[in-house]
UniProtKB/TrEMBL annotation:
<dbReference type="InterPro" id="IPR000731">
    <property type="entry name" value="SSD"/>
</dbReference>
<feature type="transmembrane region" description="Helical">
    <location>
        <begin position="551"/>
        <end position="572"/>
    </location>
</feature>
<dbReference type="InterPro" id="IPR050545">
    <property type="entry name" value="Mycobact_MmpL"/>
</dbReference>
<feature type="transmembrane region" description="Helical">
    <location>
        <begin position="12"/>
        <end position="31"/>
    </location>
</feature>
<feature type="transmembrane region" description="Helical">
    <location>
        <begin position="527"/>
        <end position="544"/>
    </location>
</feature>
<feature type="transmembrane region" description="Helical">
    <location>
        <begin position="367"/>
        <end position="387"/>
    </location>
</feature>
<feature type="transmembrane region" description="Helical">
    <location>
        <begin position="274"/>
        <end position="295"/>
    </location>
</feature>
<comment type="similarity">
    <text>Belongs to the resistance-nodulation-cell division (RND) (TC 2.A.6) family. MmpL subfamily.</text>
</comment>
<feature type="transmembrane region" description="Helical">
    <location>
        <begin position="616"/>
        <end position="641"/>
    </location>
</feature>
<dbReference type="InterPro" id="IPR004869">
    <property type="entry name" value="MMPL_dom"/>
</dbReference>
<feature type="transmembrane region" description="Helical">
    <location>
        <begin position="647"/>
        <end position="667"/>
    </location>
</feature>
<dbReference type="GO" id="GO:0005886">
    <property type="term" value="C:plasma membrane"/>
</dbReference>
<keyword id="KW-1003">Cell membrane</keyword>
<feature type="domain" description="SSD">
    <location>
        <begin position="233"/>
        <end position="328"/>
    </location>
</feature>
<dbReference type="Pfam" id="PF03176">
    <property type="entry name" value="MMPL"/>
</dbReference>
<keyword id="KW-0472">Membrane</keyword>
<keyword id="KW-0812">Transmembrane</keyword>
Amino acid sequence: MSGRGGHARATLIAVAVVLAWLVIGGVAGPYSGRLGEVATNDNAAFLPTDAEATRAQDLAGEFVDRQTIPALVVYERTSGITDADRQRASADVARFAQVPGVVNPLPPPIPSEDGQALQVVVPVDDAEGEEIGSVVERLRDIAGGDRDGLTVDVAGPAGLLADLIEVFSAIDGPLLLVTLVVVLVILLIVYRSPVLWVFPLLAAGMSYALASVFVYLLADADVLKLNGQAQGILTVLVFGAGTDYALLLIARYREELHRHDRPFHAMRTAWKGAAPAIIASGGTVIVSLLCLLLSSLNSNRALGPVAAIGIAATLLVMLTFLPALLLLGGRWAFWPRRPRADQADPQTEHGIWGRIAGFVARHARPVWLSTAVVLAILTLGLTQLGATTLGQSDLFTQRTDSVDGQEVIARHYPAGTGSPATIFATEQTARQVAQVAQNVPGVAAVRPVSATQQSGPPDGNAPPKVVDGRVQLDATLADPPDSDGAERTIRELRVAVHQVPGADAVVGGFTAINVDTSDAARRDQNVIIPVVLVVIAVILALLLRALLAPVLLIATVLLSFAATLGLCALLFRHAFDFPGVDASFPLFAFVFLVALGIDYNIFLMSRVREESVKRGTRAGVLAGLAVTGGVITSAGIVLAATFSALAVLPLVVLVELGTAVAVGVLIDTIIVRSLLVPALAYDIGPRIWWPGRLSRANGEREARHAR
């Protein structure tokens, strides 16, 4: 295709591609605001099917007509509950019973032993799903606010779930808006053009719309599970990675506009040069994310495909829609700094990175040794990283009604009241199991669930309900149900009741769900992390056609990952005052940091290899660093900033993940990719491509130059 006719045909094709994508965007766009409709945030739904808590949940369903999740309405007056307070609580109980979604009959208010609090257990129908948030909101409206020294809070598992649902409702609005603003500001700074920023932002929005429609349809068909965490990560990942790919393609397009008269020829060359690196980068992230399918947790298995769909949609849009937009925009899209066809060496446009490349060339070995030492020192912070299950009061970055209520309950009742551990045992051994359970430290009381009372505290004098030869025992814990103490009690309780002969005992409940989730998260780390490393190594080996380079790149990324976690551990503990990290944090941080961190090495080393074929390895390293330095740094800043947007959600686990990815990406971009990797590659020379042919060819070339 050449001449005016070829240019005209290329323009028509570009117009057709843009129009087709605009139609797709018009159809897919509304789905981006509907993802919350198919999201679920119930931790129990994400447990492994073979987990003990899952088996207990299945057994619990046989003892009740409807599965419920308790909301705990707690009234506190530190000077002592008055008769008026009791009348108010009793009146509230009658009104609670009328709320759709509440399972009747409701028990009367339970006074605390110190006389300073009343507690009402309100079972909410588990079938309400995400509408549990609306039920709890109605309970809070009825209970009203604090009055004349009486404080009122709605806590318990239902209260916590309602607060989480409210947090995740911000994803479709504030999070998306903040992400868009962050990307827009950075693009304006990078391009200093009133026009060019439109193209990558429009393409990223199209990517998000396309990903949303597929995720919505699959979640609606129950093919995959979507939760608020995955939805939030999908938003920032698509906009962050999409802008990265756009920056790489646009930078290469600008280079080629200096070498070609016609934009079509420039785009064709730029696409051929940039597409392999973009595809390899996206493919690495997709495959790494799909490794989460090996997880035993349904929540992790859901995040993998959701995020992978986002990256796949982004790749498709950035390699079709964006090139068509840029082709139609031509040189004027870069106004006021429009590139001319002057055959200029692209390195001349990258003065600062040319100077950095020169510095690396003069001090290669000291540079990579010193940067490696700095990163190794940062890894010492890992001693401050304590993976744990965050307690309810530690989940949020701000105070919530459920947190306040749980603290009131802990002050006046056995902290596990309203959220007991459930023990299922055979009828013949039920009494023995109850005695064994009662003797476990941390268990405040054990009572059977009776046939006459299935809501509120069990009646110890009523005969137990028997279903298929089994009895359910409710064990009230002394510690808050989401605390480390409660989890230790559950582990000891399981050991104790499992030893009762013939009991076939199963322990479940809210705390047991947390225990099994933490255990599964640790198992996932041991299984998934090695698989991801092997997958990335294979992709790098195929892309670079070498074995030594992939091994060194993975080593640098692992060092960067460890340094990031070490630095973040210090930040979380001493700057943010967080109590620790969730058990799933190391795995999520690893998958995103390693998959995304290797991206920048792919962008750099694929260009270094291309330049090495023409110039030799050491000259290729310097040329690749000079040419890609600006665009990769910009891409890293964009990705770091978009993940930082997760801080708008007041949830500690997402703030920690967003901070870790932002810090890690900046370390990868500024230290690893700019200094450590090029200095190491320059020092090693042609052997970096061992055992490929380029290693031998460049070795001979550089040996001749040395003579």
